[in-house]
């Protein structure tokens, strides 16, 4: 079942949080010269036209990236992320939203490698086309979870793995934990970032408990809620669970998340959270 299309949601509040975290992790890894692998298991189409029928139908980006991208009080923690957004919007108005592969492409260096997988029959060729001329990169139409076995450990023993499934299958909540375990077994020093939506809080509590039970240490949870938890349909919050976060990430997100919350949710409802699921 591949009915999810990220083009309906690109640039929404969840993407803003996800890609802020993604860019801060990449910038931290760049502090050492040694190359690293960026592995994007559920990569999407790469580029999203915000004037498309899909984006216009939901208008989600209007309450996400559109609220922050031209603010003049932007915290420094958003600089790298915004440099990527600006690189795809040269005309001064917001036309495209760069997904995680394009943000990585903009921020990674000559010596780094990108490996991306996307299963959707329409989005996978679009992503491949984006990277035709980039010889640091490999794009496959393949299962993302399999990559956690086949691509790890990376050649240079440095890596950032972004796991961003659509959760249209209930089994994704377990599959991500199993996938992380598989990856971690092979590559325990990698930085793993798992995106999650809060639709039913209970699902996230269960997933977090299962992660705790793996025995993996150094797991940081970052969350931004735009509404209180609810039993009704729809995403009220989203977050990133980061294993082996760069040492500055906790502080950086504790600074920037309240700002993002203020700007993204002017009504002041919801919450932010940066806390350890398991510390050292
Ligand atoms: N990471 C992207 C970004 O931040 O721009 C967004 C990805 S979107 C949330 C999830 C994507 O996973 C969808 O495009 C979907 O087609 C794809 N997908 C679903 N199941 C997959 C699987 N088993 N392996 C790889 N991709 C999958």
TrEMBL record:
The protein, known as: Ribosomal RNA large subunit methyltransferase J
Catalytic residues of the enzyme: 164 (proton acceptor)
Binding site for S-adenosyl-L-methionine: 19, 42, 100, 118, 143-144, 164
Domain of life: Bacteria
The EC number(s) this enzyme carries: 2.1.1.266
Subunit structure comment from the entry: Monomer.
Keywords, alphabetical: Methyltransferase, RNA-binding, rRNA processing, S-adenosyl-L-methionine, Transferase
Function: Specifically methylates the adenine in position 2030 of 23S rRNA.
Cited HAMAP family: 23SrRNA_methyltr_J
Site feature (Interaction with substrate rRNA) residues: 4
The keyword S-adenosyl-L-methionine is assigned to this record: yes
Catalytic activity: adenosine(2030) in 23S rRNA + S-adenosyl-L-methionine = N(6)-methyladenosine(2030) in 23S rRNA + S-adenosyl-L-homocysteine + H(+)
Pfam families in the record: RsmJ
Family: Belongs to the RlmJ family.
